[in-house]
């Protein structure tokens, strides 16, 4: 059985994600096949958690076992991190964004590489993956495992397509290519976390983090565009 408190945390995490199309992304876009294929594991995972709770598809390793307790503890950390990262990514933007780059218009004004985008090109996608990892760790069963595996494949593919589009853009291509070298797709690279002494000194003197120019056109992408 899944602990009630753990289940509630996971449902809050996925509920937060489910609200994005209505509360954060730009309205008016059709939720076509691309959206549903990408979002499928994010809807299926909480469903599998519910099935585990009512005993229809119980976890392979129970939460009351030593291994299950450790797994749940790590899962809680991932769920909390997912919520925090998603909140930070949303807070970076002043205006609603397109869900995908193929929905973006031509009114891109600048690239954003501050906030979580400084180290991760796709913090919103990363928060989705953290939620799926949390769902699996909190309920070790085949359904949550399949959701995690499928989510990793589809989100990695979508992120790669968006990166290719931006890196080949005539307006932002060179800058985005450089940005890709300095950041990770879903995880921050080790070298990005270490500031050189001259850079750290310069930033301390300015009293604000260094912000690099980047292009932004969709909420799910690495660099998001604002007007």
Structural class: mainly alpha
Overall average pLDDT: 80
Percent helix range: 55-70%
CA-CA gap between termini: 48 Å
What percentage of the residues does DSSP assign to strands (E)?
A: under 5%
Q: In terms of quaternary structure, what is this?
A: single chain
Number of helices: 8
Rg (C-alpha, Å): 19 Å
CATH topology name: Four Helix Bundle (Hemerythrin (Met), subunit A)
What's the CATH architecture name?
Up-down Bundle
List keywords for this structure.
227 residues, mainly alpha, Four Helix Bundle (Hemerythrin (Met), subunit A), 8 helices, 57% helix
What can you see in these coordinates?
The chain has 227 residues and is mostly helical. It has one domain: Four Helix Bundle (Hemerythrin (Met), subunit A) (Up-down Bundle). Helix content is 57%, strand content 0%. The protein contains 8 helices and no strands. The chain starts with a helix and ends in a 21-residue tail after the last helix. Mean pLDDT is 80; it is low at 101-106 and 206-222.
């Amino acid at each position: 059985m899944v602990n009630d408190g753990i289940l509630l945390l996971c449902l809050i995490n996925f509920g937060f994600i489910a609200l994005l199309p209505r509360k954060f992304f730009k309205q008016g876009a059709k939720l076509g096949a691309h959206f549903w294929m990408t979002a499928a594991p994010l809807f299926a995972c909480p469903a599998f958690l519910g099935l585990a709770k009512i005993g229809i598809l119980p976890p392979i390793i129970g939460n009351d076992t030593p291994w299950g307790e450790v797994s749940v503890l790590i899962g809680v950390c991932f769920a909390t991190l997912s919520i925090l990262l998603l909140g930070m990514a949303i807070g970076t933007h002043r205006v609603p964004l397109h869900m995908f780059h193929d929905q973006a218009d031509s009114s891109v004004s600048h690239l954003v590489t501050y906030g979580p985008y400084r180290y991760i090109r796709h913090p919103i996608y990363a928060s989705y993956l953290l939620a799926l990892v949390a769902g699996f760790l909190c309920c070790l069963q085949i359904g949550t495992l399949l959701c995690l595996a499928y989510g990793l494949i589809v989100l990695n593919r979508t992120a790669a397509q968006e990166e290719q589009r931006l890196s080949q853009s005539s307006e932002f291509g060179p800058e985005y290519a450089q940005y890709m070298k300095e950041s990770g797709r879903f995880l921050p690279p080790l070298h990005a976390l270490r500031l050189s002494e001259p850079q750290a000194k310069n930033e301390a003197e300015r009293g604000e983090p260094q912000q690099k120019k980047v292009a932004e056109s969709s909420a799910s992408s690495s660099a998001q565009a604002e007007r």
